[in-house]
Design brief:
This protein is an alpha/beta fold. The chain has helices at residues 5-11, 31-43, 57-61, 65-77, 90-99, 115-125, 148-154, 165-173, 199-209, and strands spanning 19-22, 29-30, 85-86, 103-108, 130-135, 159-162, 178-181, 193-196. A 6-stranded parallel beta sheet has the order 5-4-1-6-7-8, sandwiched between helices. Strands 2-3 form a two-stranded antiparallel ribbon. Bound molecules: magnesium ion.
Length: 212
């Protein structure tokens, strides 16, 4: 497998055991499928993942960013939130990376008010895997917001896995190596990041990177 040399160069001097930051929504968890179950039922629409050419839901749904934030607020409180399941092979991959000796932390853009539900979900699907859970509060209307790059630097993260171009660019700009979890909205990912389509590829690449 060909690895972009820039990514390899940026990480090859890192320790064999890395601190890996893992995004939740639409990286390790298939959140959009549950959101669409909720949204299509409520609005009588037939939207699919493929329709999301950007990860700003209002640009697909129409309306303002604030309306999309409100819609997501309703989703979080609905029964559909409980329908979020892991992405294919994310459970297996993260367990194996943990067993390989890497330190794994969740770095999510979610708001802190979702901490209890989030921890419950992590305990259900990824028990004992993560050392820390950090909330960036990306779209929160109140409370402290942090860039994911700031969280990563503060906590000595060596590599982040994410799907959102805003966070990807932020981390690339901060010289943090990024593995992009492939979704329709990130087909063109920034230089300095490496886009992968499946969690099996994530496992393969990290095993290569940590053995050089
Ligand atoms: Mg995400």
């Amino acid at each position: 497998m060909i690895i972009k040399s820039s990514l390899l160069k940026s990480i090859h001097l890192k320790p064999q055991y890395m601190h890996i930051a893992v995004d939740l929504d639409d990286s390790s968890l298939d959140t959009l499928t549950a959101v669409l179950l909720y949204y299509n039922q409520k609005h009588g629409t037939f939207l699919k993942r493929e329709n999301f050419f950007v990860y700003r839901f209002n640009e697909v749904w129409g309306g303002t960013l604030q309306e999309a934030i409100n819609e997501m607020g309703e989703f979080y409180l609905s029964e559909y939130f409980e329908k979020i399941t892991p992405m294919p092979d994310s459970e297996r991959t993260l367990r194996l990376l943990h067993e390989d000796g890497h330190k794994l932390s969740v770095v999510t853009g979610r708001e802190p008010f979702l901490s209890e539900k989030t921890e419950k979900c992590i305990e259900k699907y990824f028990p004992g895997i993560f050392s820390g859970i950090y909330f960036a509060n990306t779209y929160g209307l109140t409370g402290t917001k942090m860039k994911k790059s700031e969280i990563c630097i503060k906590n000595g993260v060596d590599l982040i896995i994410d799907d959102d171009l805003m966070h990807i660019s932020d981390c690339v700009d901060a010289q943090i190596p990024v593995l992009v979890y492939g979704n329709p909205w990130n087909e063109i990912s920034p230089k300095g990041s490496l886009r992968l389509k499946h969690w099996n590829e994530v496992l393969e690449i990290i095993r290569i990177l940590s053995s050089v």
